[in-house]
Amino acid sequence: MPDLLARRRALLGPNVSTFYDDPIHVVRGDGVWLWDAAGNRYLDCYNNVPHVGHCNPRVVQAITTQAAKLNTHSRYLYEGILDYVERLTGTFDDPLTTAILTCTGSEANDIALRMAEAMTGKRGIIATDATYHGNTTLVSQLSTSNPPEVGFGLDGYVRHVEAPDSYRLHDPDGQRFAEKVQEAIDALNASGVGFAALIVCPLFLNEGFPRQAEGWLRPAAEAARRAGGLLICDEVQAGFGRCGSHFWGHQKQGVIPDVVTMGKPMGNGHPVAGLVTTPEIMARFRSSFRYFNTFGGNPVSCAAAMAVLEELEDKSLQANAARIGKLAVERLDTLAQKYSVIGDTRQSGMVFGAEFVLDRTSKEPASAYADRVVNAMRHQGILLPNLGRQKNPLKTRPPMPFAEAHLDLLIDTLDRVMAETPVQA
Hints:
Elements: H1 2-12, E1 26-30, E2 33-36, E3 41-44, H2 57-67, H3 79-89, E4 98-102, H4 105-120, E5 124-128, E6 158-161, H5 175-191, E7 195-200, H6 218-226, E8 230-234, H7 249-252, E9 259-262, E10 273-277, H8 279-288, H9 299-314, H10 317-338, E11 342-347, E12 352-356, H11 367-379, E13 382-383, H12 404-420
Parallel strand pairs: 3-13, 5-6, 5-7, 7-8, 8-9
Antiparallel strand pairs: 1-2, 2-3, 4-10, 9-10, 11-12
């Protein structure tokens, strides 16, 4: 392992992120499991990239079959991209009927911001103050979790609003958040930049996935529309059935965005991403910008993405997400009765977790404790992260085939680790 880390630094440069204090050298995956070079097995409760399971046989077969037949770029005509887009847009509400395929979610969000400029003639973007939407020069300006140290002055076009926090902020119907959005709209217009778009993950999964009633986002969406801006929903984490109750997170929120972006889980780890929008917005973008992506929507990527949609449907994985999420929060609530360090529990389908606090009255974040628990779980064969503004909530988002037996292993191990981990600031 030290040699591998040294080679990594020498070949990839310093400060390249790794998971955990003691990084894992993974060599194989299958379903919800990963194995390291020493043969140790880990339950993957972290990874939403292999959406339908590591090395899913249907996806692997689709990739290998298409790769053996044809792979080229999208300036040639081929049916795969059209068949896929028809099936993908069939999961959306009208008028979201057209798509652009890319290789990464960052590219998709970058295009979405350009669509907002094309439609409004303005460049002001509103995002939350605890978000992440990608790493292109433009999109990186939206991030507060991984902000660029040196930029191109694009931060002048961005306004951040306070992220929702159902544990600390009273905002049951989304009105408080909508007021903050309106204040940011007014500030952008007063500055002369003008307001172009509000971009959010509809379930605010990077921000700590707060509890929200269905339709919570609607007041903010209405504020954006009244101001002439677009609503962009980043579904890289929330989409493809993960929230359980709906196929897309924005559907749970009761809104129809102008642009929906997607990425990581779309091809189960194969680099395919994209966005869906309306014919009007697409036509304006196509006439305002010359855009071409050599590999976006190539035949192999489309085959992988189609296999993901087929697997989700055939295995009823959205329903599985709803069922497991409900069981998970019940089990976490039981742990909360035992450990006062759990201040709050929450879930949105196959995203669930607990927020650690040093004191339930003050709600002071137990960030260091969360770090210790996550690293201890790693040594017990369970992979999961802590995130959010203070890095004190545990966030579990496993592959969608995650079953009740896997949940039992996760909760039982968490119970044991918490009993052995001292709570301290």
